[in-house]
Specification:
single chain; five-stranded mixed β-sheet; 5 strands
């Protein structure tokens, strides 16, 4: 395990979309569902615009000292009535460049995400992780997340 690279977290910009899609495709699951290109296909750019204009969504990137996008995550802030009106932050699409995994970059990103959630008044944080990502599950558990729900999905 090498030394943790220095990163700076920031909101994603339109010009980051190709790099973000490359990160999303940088594993077995993503490789089968993402389309990498520079420029990225139009549907990714349209999705970016929907996210960027949604005040309840934050697509973020981590850039290294040279300004290269090396990781990404998305936060969605959800107003809630349950749990005495607790707002929550949903973390999804967490990806770290495969060449940099195991160097605490993901931990730095998740700490940043937790800070963002606290700053927005969220009392709870949830995350989505595919059932097959057992290494990621161990990582999240080390950060204090507990397996508490069973998720399901389907096409509408």
């Amino acid at each position: 395990m090498g030394e943790a690279p220095q990163i700076r977290m920031r909101p994603a910009r339109r010009e980051d979309v190709a790099a973000i899609v490359r990160l999303l495709a940088d594993d077995g699951l993503g490789a089968g569902r993402e389309t990498v290109g520079d420029p990225p296909p139009p549907d990714y750019l349209a999705a970016f615009e929907r996210i960027a204009t949604n005040p309840q969504a934050l697509l973020a990137v981590a850039e290294d000292a040279a300004g290269r996008v090396v990781a990404t995550l998305q936060l969605t802030f959800i107003a809630g009535l349950s749990n005495r009106g607790a707002d929550q932050a949903l973390v999804s699409a967490v990806r770290v460049d495969s060449r940099l995994r195991g160097r605490r970059l993901g931990e730095a990103m998740m700490t940043w995400a937790m800070d963002q959630a606290r700053a927005r008044g969220c009392r709870q944080m949830e995350l989505l992780s595919h059932a097959s990502r057992t290494d990621a599950h161990r990582f999240y558990e080390r950060l204090g997340f507990a397996k508490s729900h069973v998720g399901m999905k389907r096409a509408p």
